[in-house]
Each structure stands twice: as structure tokens, then as C-alpha cells.
């Protein structure tokens, strides 16, 4: 097999006659070439202006329709696309023309003969050569003209440059190279290359060779040779640096150029070896995603955005493969890397985490600068400058009662009170706070989440109730009966709001207090109380409309020795009537002091100790000298009732016997009394007897009548038939 490197020799044959057609091109190709394809053979002498035509390659009858040869339209080189076998075909005759679309020949034909060289013709040491067969002019120079030598060859197979036989004796050769190069001519007139050629170091050499005798005299004029070092694909494309990274805004439209890659190839400019194309390696398309993130122009190396969406903050490593030989198989390559960063733009408006706050209750006497609420807003942008926020009160602050405090780089804002609140002026407030970006927003404006509403309720401040005394004291005998009035708890301002009273720690249950009047009574007899002892309870007064407002005072009851039991004097009270079922009125009772004491009250009224009386009747004191007696039950038996009422005053006690007639009443509330039996009127029994006797007499007479009729009918039936009188026919 031939090694991967190959040099190529091309020769343009001088026309034999001026009127002859273009000289044939002869090219040798080693058989079974194991290198990369296509293999560039020789550059065709096509005219420079060939834009209007197309290159047509044809061959002899021995070449298959899909021949192994082609012409590169860009470079004009004749190439072979696969390995050739000398045993299959040793020589190919080709013809190249430049034709129009309708077949008119613009240039040519150019004949090319390709000779397949046998592998055994190679020199030892794995040397490669390509020679051109030329005519030999006897005893003169061989007209080589221009020689094309492949670079990077260790030893060049020698080329004959002269005829070995010269008249006049021995021949010596003298060679001069401009610039100096690795060439020499042996005694047989063969040109040698003494070391590797490097096109990058020197692409062309001009040689002059003289044929001299032993005395140094020239036989002929010098032979001029033009040596061209042909390019080999031995240099990889080198990516030019583009900087550490490329930044692209987040919402850039598809087709926006991200970067333009450039790779340099040190091979011959304009040759296929330096023709670089580009291929995108990464990022690869995401499975299931629509479109690609990047698009690459393989010719220019321009990288543009695809249709896939971008996310701010992404760091994408862009890897592009640069390949020479126009991307054909066997081309050398290198990887170009560019870091692409997707930069953020201010396309997200800040939003509050909560749109409704409250209601928040504040007393109207709260001090200014009091913190009302703390609101928090967030921004989805990444750049710190795009997250800077500005806050303002948009509505609900006409009087400037509220204000905002916040730090420039914070998403928290504090709503504070700037002025005093007034329940009468505004019992509630709805403060609308708006948040905006400091930087200009890109895209749609702020949405509903950019506002938050804080509801503030103002609590009316009512002073707590105040009693006429801070503490109270009552002195009562231990024999004080239940229901006795001890004292009355009153507010300090009679015109103040209504109060509700209660006892907090009445552990013995001796006392009770009227809920709205504040009168303290004995709830039961004071069993266990000893003279000289004291009993302390707490009286609590609450505002009837605002239960949270209250006050309290202590009530100390001091027990006295019971006075001698007075003799109850019974004082009758004129009879009065009440309706049953119960109606909304009662009987007014006065103290009826039997001793006609001229002193003023207060008098204490209570029902007698009879349980039935206490169950059926209710006694309510009206003032210090009168009480009100009503039915306690809905229904009381209609009759005359005697209700005992105990009256006490200054340790004196007496009992009133109140006669009350309970009766059914008409719609006008008048008592309907039971009517008694009139004199001379029969009783129920006598009336029943008279009725029964009357009915018996009537029945007796009816029996007699029916018996008489029955006997008369029987008498008529017993008479003979002829005795029956005839009835006149009508």
C-alpha cells in the first residue's frame, strides 16, 4: 500500500506546432491508494471567467458511467473519488470542456490521460513520485518547464533533466537555486531533492542548471526550471479567539447573530486543504422541544438564535467543529468553543406577595409613626439593578394620614401612621399601595399584583365607666330577711351611658344586685353570719354597649346584732283584682305604717315566708315607700287570695295582708265574677226531677194512646166479611 502522503507532479507540455491543438495532460496515479478521498490530481487550465458555463467531464468507452473522476467546480482541480486498480484498467482518457446549458462549447476540449501506476514501481523507502512522460531531444535538454513537487517528502524520486549522451566528452552539471533550496543534480543528469519541502517556508524555487565539460565550459545555455511546492493537507484549522464569552439579551428574536466563528488553515489559500466549513456540536436539541437554541451557517460560521426560548442566567457552552477539505472525509478538524451567557432584561414587574391585608384595628388615640402593616414585594428579574423598587400610596390617603418607609434595595415596605386617627371623621380606611421598578420596564406593564390594599378599622375610644364611690359599706342586722334593700350602686354621672352590674365573689350567695338599677338586696337569710363579722364582695359595672369597658368597686357588709323581734302588726289592705291568665299590670302596695311615723323611708318590702306565696307572686319595690305586686305564674286559680307582705323600716317590721281577687277578665280587662243563685230559683237537682217527671208523664200518655189504637184495630179484624161496609168507588 502507498502511504497517506502523496506528492503530485504536473507538467504543461509545450505545443509542438503553433497551429496544433492544446497539449494533452498526462497524470500518473498510484493504484490502490489508501489515503483520503477525493484525491486532488492536477489543476485544469480552465478560463478564469466561467460563471456562465458548466464544466463537463467525459471519458473513453472503457470508463464506467459513474466514473471515479470529477472536477471540483470551485477550485478547478481534477480529482479521483476512489482507489484505482491497474489490473482492471491501466489508463483513462478524459476530456474536459466548458459548455453552456444548451450544449454550446465555450472552452476546450482539454484531453487528460491518467496512467495508473503499479505499486511495484515505487522506489524503496516508501518513496512516492508522480512523473510526466516527455519527448527526449537527442543531445539536448529535456524541456521540463514547471515542476510541481509535493511538500513533506523525505526523498524525491529523481527526474531526468538531460540526455545522458553528450558529444564532446564527460558532462558535469552545475545547479543554482533562487532562493537556495535542497536540490542537486547527479552525474546522470537527474534532479534530486535532499530534504523535505515545506510550502509554508517556501512555496516556489527558480533553478538554473548548466551542462559543463571537465574544464568547466558550458555546453549549452542553462536550463531554467520553475519548482512549485504543492500543498498537502497537513495543517488543522485554528479557531481565532473570540474572547471569554458572548452575552445575549433574554428576549432576543430568532435570527439574531450571536457570534461569527473564524478558523484559519495554514494550507495553501484557495486550495481544498484550506477550505474550512463548520458543524455545530453542542448544545444538542432537547428531545421534545420545538426548535433549536442555535443555528449555524456552515460556510460563514455565523451562529444565530433559533426558535427555542432562552432563560436569563443560562450559561451555554457553544462547541463548533471546524473542518478543512470542505468537510469531506479525511479533512482535519479542530473544535471552537464560545461561552454564551443569556443576560437578564427588566421584563418582570414587581408584585406584592399578598394583595389584601387586614382589616387591622387601631384605636383612634394611637400615636403617629405607629407601624400599621409591613408589605413584601418580589421581582423575578435576576439583575440587582432590575430588582430595585419604588413604592407609593395610590389611593385612600387624601388627608396624608399614612406614609411609607422602605430601604432602596429591599422588597419590604412599612405602612406607618403620620397623623392622628378620628373615628368621627373616618371609621375605616382603605389604603392602596403600588410598587414599580426604578429602571424602565421592558414589555407589558405592571399587572394587578403590583397593588396591595390595606384595610384599617378605627376603634372609638370611650372612657371606662366611673362609679360615684370607690368603695361601699352597708351595716345590716344578721336577722335581715331576704329581699331587703341594702344600697344602690350608681355611676358618678347620672347622664352617662347605661351600666350593667354584677357581683364577682359572692361566695356565700347572701347578696344579689339588680342588673340595670344597681340595687343590692339580700338574696337569702343570713344564716351563719355573726354580729361583728364583715362580708366583702366586688361590684363590677360594665358599659351596656361596650362590654370591654368596665370598672369595679368593693362592697363591705358589716353584720350587726339582731334587734328584738318586733311584733308583726297585721294591716289589712283593701281588696284588688288581677286577671288570669296574667296580664301586664299589678297591684300597688304602700308601706301603710301602723304607727303613722312621720319619718321618711326607705321601706323594705318582701313576700311572706310561705313557699306557695313566693311561687305564685312577685313583689318589686318601686321606691322607698311603694312596691308592685304581680302574678309570678301565667295561671293562678281564680279566687280571692290573701298575700302576706312584710314591710321593714328602721328595725321595725310589720305585715300587710293584701287581698287580691284573681278572676277571668274580658277583652277590656274587666273581671268577670261568678253569679250566685237567685232566691226562688230551683236548684239543679229539682230542675232535673221536674224534667224527668215531665218526660215520664208524656211517655205514660203515649202508651195509653198506642194501646187504644191497637185494640180498636183488632176489633175490626174480628168482624165477618159481610159486615164490612162497602166503600163507594170513585
UniProtKB/TrEMBL annotation:
<feature type="domain" description="Cadherin">
    <location>
        <begin position="354"/>
        <end position="467"/>
    </location>
</feature>
<keyword id="KW-0472">Membrane</keyword>
<dbReference type="GO" id="GO:0000902">
    <property type="term" value="P:cell morphogenesis"/>
</dbReference>
<dbReference type="GO" id="GO:0016477">
    <property type="term" value="P:cell migration"/>
</dbReference>
<feature type="domain" description="Cadherin">
    <location>
        <begin position="171"/>
        <end position="239"/>
    </location>
</feature>
<feature type="transmembrane region" description="Helical">
    <location>
        <begin position="687"/>
        <end position="711"/>
    </location>
</feature>
<feature type="domain" description="Cadherin">
    <location>
        <begin position="56"/>
        <end position="131"/>
    </location>
</feature>
<dbReference type="Pfam" id="PF00028">
    <property type="entry name" value="Cadherin"/>
</dbReference>
<dbReference type="InterPro" id="IPR020894">
    <property type="entry name" value="Cadherin_CS"/>
</dbReference>
<dbReference type="GO" id="GO:0016342">
    <property type="term" value="C:catenin complex"/>
</dbReference>
<keyword id="KW-0812">Transmembrane</keyword>
<keyword id="KW-0677">Repeat</keyword>
<dbReference type="GO" id="GO:0044331">
    <property type="term" value="P:cell-cell adhesion mediated by cadherin"/>
</dbReference>
<keyword id="KW-0106">Calcium</keyword>
<keyword id="KW-0732">Signal</keyword>
<keyword id="KW-1133">Transmembrane helix</keyword>
<dbReference type="GO" id="GO:0005912">
    <property type="term" value="C:adherens junction"/>
</dbReference>
<dbReference type="GO" id="GO:0008013">
    <property type="term" value="F:beta-catenin binding"/>
</dbReference>
<protein>
    <submittedName>
        <fullName>Cadherin 16</fullName>
    </submittedName>
</protein>
<dbReference type="GO" id="GO:0034332">
    <property type="term" value="P:adherens junction organization"/>
</dbReference>
<dbReference type="GO" id="GO:0045296">
    <property type="term" value="F:cadherin binding"/>
</dbReference>
<dbReference type="GO" id="GO:0016339">
    <property type="term" value="P:calcium-dependent cell-cell adhesion via plasma membrane cell adhesion molecules"/>
</dbReference>
<feature type="domain" description="Cadherin">
    <location>
        <begin position="240"/>
        <end position="352"/>
    </location>
</feature>
<dbReference type="GO" id="GO:0005509">
    <property type="term" value="F:calcium ion binding"/>
</dbReference>
<dbReference type="GO" id="GO:0007156">
    <property type="term" value="P:homophilic cell adhesion via plasma membrane adhesion molecules"/>
</dbReference>
<dbReference type="GO" id="GO:0007043">
    <property type="term" value="P:cell-cell junction assembly"/>
</dbReference>
<feature type="signal peptide">
    <location>
        <begin position="1"/>
        <end position="22"/>
    </location>
</feature>
<dbReference type="InterPro" id="IPR002126">
    <property type="entry name" value="Cadherin-like_dom"/>
</dbReference>
<dbReference type="InterPro" id="IPR015919">
    <property type="entry name" value="Cadherin-like_sf"/>
</dbReference>
<feature type="domain" description="Cadherin">
    <location>
        <begin position="468"/>
        <end position="568"/>
    </location>
</feature>
<dbReference type="InterPro" id="IPR039808">
    <property type="entry name" value="Cadherin"/>
</dbReference>
Amino acid at each position: 500500500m502507498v502511504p497517506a502522503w502523496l506528492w503530485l507532479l504536473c507538467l504543461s507540455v509545450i505545443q509542438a506546432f503553433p497551429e496544433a491543438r492544446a497539449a494533452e495532460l498526462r497524470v500518473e496515479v498510484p493504484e490502490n491508494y489508501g489515503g483520503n478521498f477525493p484525491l486532488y490530481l492536477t489543476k485544469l487550465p480552465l478560463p478564469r471567467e466561467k460563471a456562465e458555463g458548466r464544466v463537463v467531464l467525459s471519458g473513453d468507452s472503457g470508463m464506467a458511467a459513474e466514473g471515479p473522476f470529477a472536477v471540483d467546480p470551485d477550485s478547478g482541480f481534477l480529482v479521483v473519488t476512489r482507489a484505482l486498480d491497474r489490473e482492471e484498467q491501466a489508463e483513462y482518457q478524459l476530456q474536459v470542456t466548458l459548455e453552456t446549458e444548451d450544449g454550446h462549447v465555450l472552452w476546450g476540449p482539454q484531453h487528460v490521460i491518467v496512467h495508473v501506476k503499479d505499486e511495484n514501481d515505487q522506489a524503496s523507502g516508501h518513496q512516492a513520485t508522480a512523473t510526466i512522460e516527455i519527448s527526449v531531444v537527442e543531445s539536448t535538454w529535456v524541456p521540463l518547464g514547471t515542476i510541481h513537487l509535493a511538500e513533506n517528502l523525505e526523498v524525491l524520486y529523481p527526474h531526468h533533466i538531460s540526455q545522458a549522451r553528450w558529444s564532446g566528452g564527460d558532462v558535469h552539471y552545475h545547479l543554482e537555486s533562487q532562493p537556495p533550496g535542497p536540490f542537486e543534480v547527479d552525474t546522470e543528469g537527474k534532479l534530486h531533492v535532499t530534504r523535505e519541502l515545506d510550502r509554508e517556508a517556501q512555496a516556489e524555487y527558480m533553478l538554473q542548471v548548466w551542462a559543463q565539460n571537465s574544464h568547466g565550459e558550458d555546453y549549452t545555455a542553462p536550463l531554467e526550471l520553475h519548482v512549485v511546492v504543492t500543498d498537502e493537507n497537513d495543517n488543522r484549522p485554528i479557531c481565532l479567539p473570540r474572547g471569554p464569552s458572548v452575552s445575549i439579551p433574554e428576549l432576543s428574536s430568532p435570527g439574531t447573530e450571536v457570534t461569527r466563528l473564524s478558523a484559519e488553515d495554514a494550507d495553501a489559500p484557495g486550495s481544498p486543504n484550506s477550505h474550512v466549513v463548520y458543524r455545530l456540536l453542542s448544545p444538542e436539541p432537547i428531545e421534545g422541544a420545538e426548535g433549536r437554541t442555535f443555528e449555524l451557517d456552515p460556510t460563514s460560521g455565523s451562529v444565530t438564535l433559533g426558535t427555542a426560548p432562552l432563560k436569563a442566567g443560562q450559561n451555554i457552552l457553544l462547541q463548533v467543529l471546524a473542518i478543512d477539505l470542505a468537510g469531506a472525509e479525511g479533512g482535519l478538524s479542530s473544535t471552537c468553543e464560545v461561552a454564551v451567557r443569556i443576560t437578564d432584561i427588566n421584563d418582570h414587574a414587581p408584585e406584592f406577595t399578598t394583595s389584601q391585608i387586614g382589616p387591622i384595628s387601631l384605636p383612634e388615640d394611637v400615636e403617629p409613626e405607629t407601624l400599621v402593616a409591613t408589605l413584601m414585594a418580589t421581582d423575578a428579574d435576576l439583575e440587582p439593578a432590575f430588582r430595585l423598587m419604588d413604592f407609593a400610596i395610590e389611593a385612600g390617603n387624601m388627608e396624608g394620614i399614612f406614609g411609607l418607609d422602605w430601604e432602596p434595595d429591599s422588597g419590604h415596605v412599612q405602612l406607618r401612621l403620620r397623623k392622628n386617627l378620628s373615628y368621627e371623621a373616618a371609621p375605616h380606611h382603605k389604603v392602596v399601595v403600588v410598587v414599580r421598578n426604578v429602571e424602565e420596564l421592558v414589555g407589558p406593564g405592571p399587572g394587578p399584583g403590583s397593588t396591595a390594599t390595606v384595610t384599617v378599622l378605627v376603634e372609638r375610644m370611650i372612657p371606662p365607666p366611673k362609679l360615684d364611690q370607690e368603695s361601699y359599706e352597708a351595716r345590716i342586722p344578721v336577722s335581715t330577711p331576704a329581699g331587703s334593700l341594702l344600697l344602690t350602686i350608681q355611676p358618678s354621672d347620672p347622664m352617662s351611658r347605661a351600666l350593667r352590674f354584677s357581683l364577682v365573689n359572692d361566695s356565700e350567695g347572701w347578696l344579689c344586685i339588680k342588673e340595670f338599677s344597681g340595687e343590692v338586696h339580700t338574696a337569702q337569710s343570713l344564716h351563719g353570719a355573726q354580729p361583728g363579722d364583715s362580708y366583702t364582695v366586688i361590684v363590677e359595672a360594665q358599659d351596656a354597649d361596650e362590654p370591654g369597658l368596665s370598672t369595679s368597686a368593693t362592697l363591705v357588709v358589716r353584720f350587726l346584732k339582731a334587734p328584738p323581734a318586733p311584733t308583726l302588726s297585721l294591716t289589712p289592705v283593701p281588696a284588688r283584682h288581677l286577671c288570669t291568665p296574667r296580664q301586664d299590670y299589678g297591684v300597688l302596695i304602700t308601706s301603710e305604717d301602723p304607727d303613722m311615723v312621720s319619718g321618711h323611708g326607705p321601706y323594705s318590702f318582701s313576700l311572706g315566708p310561705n313557699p306557695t306565696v313566693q311561687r305564685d307572686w312577685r313583689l318589686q319595690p318601686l321606691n322607698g315607700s311603694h312596691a308592685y305586686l304581680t302574678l309570678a305564674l301565667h295561671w293562678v286559680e281564680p279566687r280571692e287570695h290573701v298575700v302576706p307582705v312584710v314591710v321593714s323600716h328602721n328595725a321595725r317590721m310589720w305585715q300587710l295582708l293584701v287581698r287580691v281577687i284573681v278572676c277571668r277578665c274580658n277583652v277590656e280587662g274587666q273581671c268577670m265574677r261568678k253569679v250566685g243563685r237567685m232566691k226562688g230559683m230551683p236548684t239543679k237537682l229539682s230542675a232535673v226531677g221536674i224534667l224527668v217527671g215531665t218526660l215520664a208523664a208524656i211517655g205514660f200518655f203515649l202508651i195509653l194512646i198506642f194501646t187504644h189504637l191497637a185494640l180498636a184495630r183488632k176489633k175490626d179484624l174480628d168482624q165477618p166479611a159481610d159486615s164490612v161496609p162497602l166503600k163507594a168507588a170513585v
